[in-house]
Design a protein that fits this description.
about 230 residues; three-stranded antiparallel sheet; 5 helices; about 25% helix; disordered C terminus; about 25% strand; alpha/beta
Amino acid sequence: MQLPESDLIRLLRVGMEFGGRRVLDNVSLDIRSGDFFAITGPNGGGKTTLLRIILGLLKPTSGSAVYVNKSLRVGYLPQKNQIDIGFPISVADVMRSGLLGVRGLSSCERRDRVDEMMDRMGLSAYSARTIGTLSGGQLQRALLGRAIISNPELLVLDEPLSYVDKQFASSLVDIIDGFASSATVILVSHEMNEIVSRATRHIIVDREVYECAASHHYARVSYCGDRGR
């Protein structure tokens, strides 16, 4: 399939089942360069599954997901419950893993990037600690640092405000604003907040996908005037 130049990913009639349960059904969605998606919807509606298909981490049961640029730099912040906190990896190594696959950096440049990101995330004092010793907010910052350290062209954030305190939430808004001006951002949130309100496209996932064109957007699916049912 030939995609328009601005398209990064196209989902066409995608369906996903787990153990006979239909999680996503007939999802068609174009993700274009420069989009800032806010994805909302009820718990269990398929938001995280949709993200994992977009990232190429899951193959849909039906339909197709077409990727125009397989070398796209991608940063991904998963939900905390998808992380094995018992795995004995240090905070610095978590950050460093975000540079895997990034070419053209010397070992010195990689070390500098990790040090700078540790400082930016307020985690310099925790560099050698394993992730299992961190608080929920500290782990969220470590995972965010890993997601953005490569300066990704596509930044995917699943509930980025979970566990972080109000002070860092303000910094997070600035970080996402910075990426939204030069990259494609896909952000999942179960509720409206300052970050979601800045998005240029609002998608509601409740097994199917609806793009909301209303002037105001809400997390509750039934509130979107353009849901299309």
